[in-house]
Amino acid sequence: MRILLISGISGSGKSVALNVVEDAGYYCVDNLPPSLLPELITTLLSEGIQNAAMAIDSRSAHLLTGLPDTIEKLKLEGHEVTILFLTASTESLVARFSETRRSHPLSHRLQKAPSIGDRLSLTECIEEEREMLATLQFLAHVVDTSSLSANTLRTWVKDVIQVEHAPLTLMFESFAFKIGVPLDTDFVFDVRMLPNPYYDVNLRPLTGRDTAVVDFLEAQAMAQELYEDIRHFIEKWMPSFKHDNRSYLTIGIGCTGGQHRSVFMVEKLAAYFKSSEQVLVRHRRLS
């Protein structure tokens, strides 16, 4: 069976992700107590269901202790298990809760010390939730939804569920340093030292996918040298991540605006590794 576990910080888009998966034909369960996962899988298999998704979040945080062992057991039984963890910056989450005027799920469950006698603030709830789910996040493919539209998130979730099973999927992601480093990157490489096509009025409206920008950067010896250095780093350390049973490795490539240099480098690296690895590509500023 193909099993997708969706988790993450409240307000980061779990409902959007679960709806996408349900539309793709998965049997979906929201807020499943982790202890019921093996029993649910057995029941679904008896009914001939081969694709299932479960949302597990902080409402069941106190039951997460045995989940890593359960996941490992399911994998040993031959199931394909993927964990998708959605997160976002605290500032983004606060803004979203303010827009919807909803309270945080933990606000009625957690209290400050009796001497203070008050519920936690929204920011305190968010930070407490991060700590609760830290172990699960470490096991998952993480997506930072801070600056993503709901439509872009839907597209990225579709990419995750459509990817074929592989020991390790390489995720190459371009971003803009002026917006901030995404929370979902395992490694970050800075390509701002490369000549910037932005300062050529003919190249400014284009992106790192366009032939004119590619030709401009390919002509820079520094760009080729940096590409080789990043490629060699990934090739050297990727076997260690496979040995550590990681499902996803996210490589963030950043430039100032996330439009030219970082996009060019992501596309170049992805093209190379696609011949031997499972690869996904994301461009945060082109979405």
Automatic annotation (TrEMBL):
<dbReference type="GO" id="GO:0005525">
    <property type="term" value="F:GTP binding"/>
</dbReference>
<dbReference type="InterPro" id="IPR053931">
    <property type="entry name" value="RapZ_C"/>
</dbReference>
<keyword id="KW-0067">ATP-binding</keyword>
<dbReference type="InterPro" id="IPR027417">
    <property type="entry name" value="P-loop_NTPase"/>
</dbReference>
<protein>
    <submittedName>
        <fullName>RNase adapter RapZ</fullName>
    </submittedName>
</protein>
<dbReference type="InterPro" id="IPR005337">
    <property type="entry name" value="RapZ-like"/>
</dbReference>
<feature type="binding site">
    <location>
        <begin position="57"/>
        <end position="60"/>
    </location>
    <ligand>
        <name>GTP</name>
    </ligand>
</feature>
<feature type="domain" description="RapZ C-terminal">
    <location>
        <begin position="169"/>
        <end position="286"/>
    </location>
</feature>
<feature type="domain" description="RapZ-like N-terminal">
    <location>
        <begin position="1"/>
        <end position="161"/>
    </location>
</feature>
<dbReference type="Pfam" id="PF03668">
    <property type="entry name" value="RapZ-like_N"/>
</dbReference>
<keyword id="KW-0342">GTP-binding</keyword>
<keyword id="KW-0547">Nucleotide-binding</keyword>
<feature type="binding site">
    <location>
        <begin position="8"/>
        <end position="15"/>
    </location>
    <ligand>
        <name>ATP</name>
    </ligand>
</feature>
<dbReference type="Pfam" id="PF22740">
    <property type="entry name" value="PapZ_C"/>
</dbReference>
<dbReference type="GO" id="GO:0005524">
    <property type="term" value="F:ATP binding"/>
</dbReference>
<dbReference type="InterPro" id="IPR053930">
    <property type="entry name" value="RapZ-like_N"/>
</dbReference>
